[in-house]
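I trust your eye. Have a critical look at both lines of this record:
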Amino acid sequence: MSSIQLLEKPKRIARWRSHKQPVRVLVVGNNPIELGHVHDLFERMRDASYQVEFAFDLRDGFRRAIRQKPHAIVIDNNLSSNTIGDLVAKFSSEKRTSHLSLFLLAHEEEGAYQGAGITKMLPKDGLTPEILSDNMRIAVEEYSQAS
C-alpha cells in the first residue's frame, strides 16, 4: 500500500480565497445546455465569488467584454471555428481585452480550435469546479499583473 502525503497549500491560495471582489467571467457560446452546465460549475465553486455573464455571438461577446471588464473569458467550441478565430483575434487586438486569459471549452476527442491566442483548453468531459477554480485563479493573477 502506498502512502499518501498531504502538501501544504501555498499562501497565494489563501490570498485567493480572501479575494474580496467577485471574479468576473464572460462565457461565450451558442449552446444553452452546455452553458447551463458551466453556470452550474461556477455556482458550486466556494473558493471565491463569481460574477458570470453569457454572450451568444461575436458582437455581444465583445460588447460585454468591454462593459464587464472580465478577469477571464471562456469560449465554447460549439461556435464555428471561424467565429472562435474572429473572437480570439478581436479580443487579442483590442487594448482593453488583449491582457485577458482566453479559455476554450472542448471535448478531447473533437478537433479543437488550433489558432493562437487561447490560454488553455478546458475539457468539457470531466470539468470539475476544482479544475475551473484553479484556472480562474491563474487568470485573476495574470489579470492583476497586467493591470
Q: What stands out?
A: Helices lie at 11-17, 32-44, 58-68, 81-93, 129-146. The two ends are 48 Å apart (CA to CA). The chain is about 40% helix and 20% strand. The CA atoms of residues 57 and 69 lie 17 Å apart.
